[in-house]
Amino acid sequence: MMGKRQGALTVLGVLLIAYAFANAIGGGKMLCDSFSCRVMQKPALWWAGAFYAGGLLWAHRLARKVLSGLVVVGMVVECALVLTQVLLNLYCPACLGYTALFVLWVFLAGRDIFPLARKAVWGGAAVTLGVVVLVAPLTRTMCACFESPFATVNADEQVVYLFFEPTCTHCHDVLEMLEKMAVKDRVRLCPEAWSLTSVWQLVQDHCETCTQWPQRLKCLVSTLAVVRANNAFCWERGVLSAPFVVHQGRIVTGAEVPGYLLSVLENPLTGLDTQELFLPLESGGSCTVNACD
Length: 293
What we know:
63% of the residues lie in helices and 6% in strands. By secondary structure, it is an alpha+beta fold. It starts with a helix and ends in a 10-residue tail after the last helix.
């Protein structure tokens, strides 16, 4: 029985190394190239995952004292990655596949890990599972922050919806154009987020009077609920860049966004030269998860 367990651990460890190497060599696109996978995957993480799996095999055979520390660190990282996917509502099958193999390896190696480390590992996993179960119903039932200007797409096709991402420079150009046109109240702002940092940036930029932590927490959860819905909208339609406009059943992306907004929004400020608002040829463009054009 002991020999079979050791053999299974070796096979799983080698599989983890091969799995991570395959994704690292493929730039994170070999097993999954969807919008959510592009958000979550970084080649450097796959290289780290491959070397980490090799470290697990080495420690299990030659350095059992080191093994417990490696397992705890690995579980912390995996829990953080799973929570990020759940909170953003962007799931990476390739990432979850590595997580599943790692958890199975830890389960089989359980008796070789120090008791305190074993409790910490499974305690962290239990907390993560609890958050996973609670996030969706919590964000659905949380009342919207009264100060939040954000929205999600509904059945009204006459409304102009502008999707943007806080780290996208072209998105900020379009938002600035709307401010100059004084028509921002006629456009529904639909933020998406490619990281938890972006979610927090949305809260800081738009919940200015929520200074107390209970109010700030409500604003955070409310914003997270909107971001989750908008991320799902982008994922379902395969829109991989920002900004883009949804209007009358159309999706307008990239460099076409400024001109389209100028054409559908009547400028109430007479005498204002549209060239002062935006210069599409110079400033129009879009940002993807990894770069802006």
